[in-house]
Structures are given as structure tokens and as C-alpha cells.
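Hi everyone, sorry if this is the wrong subforum. Our group has a chain we'd like a structural model of before ordering constructs, and none of us has done structure prediction before. Sequence below.
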Amino acid sequence: MYILPISSEILATYHYKQLPFALSHSCSVASTMAARYVSSQIIKNVTSGSRTIGVEFVDKTTTWVRPAGFPSAQVKNEFASVVEQNISSFSARTARVAMK
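Answer:
Right subforum, don't worry. Here is the predicted structure as C-alpha cells:
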């Protein structure tokens, strides 16, 4: 799983073995190009002291749409936990991070 910065900075990366989405078979040429963020859904807000960061998952890019039911509740919780454990390593300008 990848943390996709909503801002232009690269924030962090967290990997696991299987992608939680399927690419459309019709986008074989487009899949070699970088997908652009279109929309995301909130998982939860993580707060530490006076800082709050929104934790989200990307549900749509220019090349794919995430199927319903993905990511699983367990994956969402793990991702939120990773963000929470590493909140101090994010830039002060970071308002939200999203799992790609």
C-alpha cells in the first residue's frame, strides 16, 4: 500500500503484498502512465497534540476505480495506525494522507 500525498511532497510508503484494487483491462496503455488522483474517502482523523491529519484512501484515479469493499476494514485500520505512529514525521503543512 502506498501513502499518496495530497500535497506535492512525498510523505511515506507502507507496503503490503496484494493491491487492494483491480485495474481495468481496457487501460493497458494508460496503466503504464502515472495515475492522477481524482477522489478519496476519509478513514479517520488522527490527532496528536494540536496536530490533526486526515487519513484517507484513494477511491478513484484517472486510470482506475477501486471496487466496493476495498480496502478491507483491517487494511484501513492498519493504515490509520501507521499514520498515527508516524504523525511526527510528517511535515507541519500536511493536512491529510491517502492510501493509493
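For your construct planning: Residues 3-99 form one domain. The chain has one domain: 3-99.
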